[in-house]
Write a structure and sequence with these properties.
It holds the Pfam family EF-hand_8. The chain is mainly alpha-helical. Helices cover about 50% and strands about 5% of the residues.
Length: about 210
C-alpha cells in the first residue's frame, strides 16, 4: 500500500539530471569475487559494483562517498553521513546495517523522486529551499500536518533559514518511516496507537 512521502520511482537512469548536472557513475574501485550476476543492461548494477566493498554490500560511508561524488547535492560538497545512515535503516530489512543490490536500486528510485520534488520548489536553483517551500513540498507529497508540526520540522532541518537537499532527504526519510510505523501499528485505522516505552525507543531510535 502506498503512503505519503514514498514518491514514485520513475526512470532510474544513472545519467539522470541532478540540479542541471549529469549524474555520472562514481569513480570508485569495487566488485568482489563471486558477486551474483545481474542483467548487463541494468545500469544500476555498474553503480552498485563500483561502490560496494569486498562484502558486496554498501554501508553508510560507501553510500556517502557515492552520493558525494555523484554531485546529488547540486555540487560536490559531502553528502550527510547521518542521512546516509537513516536511508540505509529505511531499507535495511535484514538488519545488517548495509544495503544489497535490490535495496540500493530501490533507494536510487526514491532519491530520484525526492530530487524531482525538491527541484520543483528550488526555483532559483540555489540547491536549497526556504521553510515555506519545504512546507509546500511536504504538502505535495500528500502529508497533511498541523502548523505546529511543520514548524518543528523546519526548526529541525533548516540551517540559517535554508534547507539543503541532504537535510531534505533526511526529513523525507523520517516522515516516511514514522508514517509507515504508525500505519503498521494502527491496524484498525483508528488514528492512534499504543506503545510501551522500550518498544517506542527501539522503533524511533532505529530511524
Amino acid at each position: 500500500m502506498a503512503y505519503p512521502g514514498y514518491g514514485g520511482f520513475g526512470n532510474m537512469n544513472p545519467h539522470m539530471q541532478m540540479m542541471g548536472q549529469t549524474m555520472a557513475p562514481p569513480n570508485l574501485q569495487g566488485a568482489y569475487f563471486g558477486q551474483p550476476q545481474y542483467p548487463e543492461g541494468d545500469p544500476m548494477w555498474g553503480y552498485f559494483r563500483a561502490v560496494s566493498g569486498q562484502d558486496g554490500e554498501i554501508d553508510a560511508e560507501e553510500l556517502q562517498r557515492c552520493l558525494t561524488q555523484a554531485g546529488i547535492n547540486g555540487n560536490y560538497t559531502p553528502f550527510s553521513l547521518e542521512t546516509c545512515r537513516i536511508m540505509i535503516a529505511m531499507l535495511d530489512r535484514d538488519h545488517t546495517g548495509k544495503m544489497g543490490f535490490n535495496e540500493f536500486k530501490e533507494l536510487w528510485g526514491v532519491l530520484s523522486a525526492w530530487k524531482q520534488n525538491f527541484c520543483t520548489f528550488d526555483q532559483d536553483r540555489s540547491g536549497t529551499v526556504e521553510p515555506h517551500e519545504l512546507n509546500q513540498a511536504i504538502f505535495a507529497m500528500g502529508y497533511r500536518l498541523s502548523p505546529q508540526t511543520l514548524n518543528s520540522i523546519v526548526k529541525r532541518y533548516s540551517k540559517s533559514g535554508r534547507i539543503y537537499f541532504d537535510d531534505y532527504v533526511a526529513c523525507c526519510v523520517k516522515l516516511r518511516a514514522l508514517t509507515d510505523l504508525f500505519r503498521r501499528r494502527d491496524g484498525m485505522q483508528q488514528g492512534f496507537v499504543n506503545f510501551i516505552y522500550d518498544d517506542f525507543l527501539q522503533c524511533t531510535m532505529a530511524i
